[in-house]
Amino acid sequence: MTALLQADGIWKSFGDRSVLRGVSLDLSVHEVVAVIGASGSGKSTLLRCLNLLETIDDGVILLGGEDISDPRVDGNRVRARFGAVFQHYNLFPHLSVIDNVTLAARKVHRMPRRDADAKAMALLERIGLADKAREHPDRLSGGQQQRAAIVRAVVTDPEVLFLDEITSALDPELVGEVLELVQSLAEEGATILMATHEMAFARDVAHRVLFLDEGRVVEEGPPSEVLVAPREERTRRFLSRFTT
C-alpha cells in the first residue's frame, strides 16, 4: 500500500530534553496503527508533531507526498485535512453539543449550516446522543463528551484521524462505549493513528502496532507479533505490566 502519511527521522526536543529521537513511520489509507509505550515515551508528542501542533527539529513529514513539515506550509490548511481527539474532550462549554460538533465543518470547511447539522445529527443518532444535541457538555457524562468529541473530529471526513489516549481521562465503566465507536470507524475504513494504553483494543483493532520507548521506535509489526510474541526484551518488559 502507498503511504498516505509518512514520517522520516523525526526529532523533537524541549529545551535539553530529547523527546523524539529519529522516529519514522508510515500510515496507509484505511490503516489503523496503534502507538504504545510508557508515559513519557513520546507518544503524544509524536501525534502533535504529525498534526503540526508542534514544530519538529529535524526530519520530514509527508502527507500524500507533500512535505508538510516545510516551514512555508500553511499549517491550518493541513490540519483541516485531519481530525484529532485528545485525552480531555476539549468541548466548548458555552456551546451546545451540536454546535460543538459542527463548528469546524461550518467555520473551516464552509459547510452550510443545514448540511452540517444534518450530518451531525445522523452521527449523533448513530451513537445514541441525538437527544443530547441541544444540551451543553456539562450535562453529559465523560463517555458521552468523548464520543461527541470523536463525532466532531469525523464529521468533516478527515483523511487521517489522530486519537491521543482518548480513554485515559474516563472512568473505567465509560471506556467501552468510546472504544466501541472507534472500532466501528476502523471497520468502516477510517485511517487512524492512535496512541493508546488499551492493549487488548490495539490487539483487536489495529493493523500494526508501534512500540515507542524513550523517543525511539523499538519494535513494530502486526499485533499478533508485537503484542503476543514480541522480539525485543524492552517490548516484553513493557507488556508484562498488562494482561492482553
From TrEMBL:
Transmembrane segments: none annotated. InterPro entries: AAA+_ATPase, ABC_ATPase_HisP-typ, ABC_transporter-like_ATP-bd, ABC_transporter-like_CS, MetN_ABC_transporter-like, P-loop_NTPase. Keywords: Amino-acid transport, ATP-binding, Cell membrane, Membrane, Nucleotide-binding, Transport. Pfam families: ABC_tran. It comes from the Bacteria. Residues 5-239 form the ABC transporter domain. One of its GO terms (molecular function) is ATP binding. It is a peripheral membrane protein. It is found in: Cell membrane. Belongs to the ABC transporter superfamily. This is Amino acid ABC transporter ATP-binding protein. It comes from Microbacterium invictum.
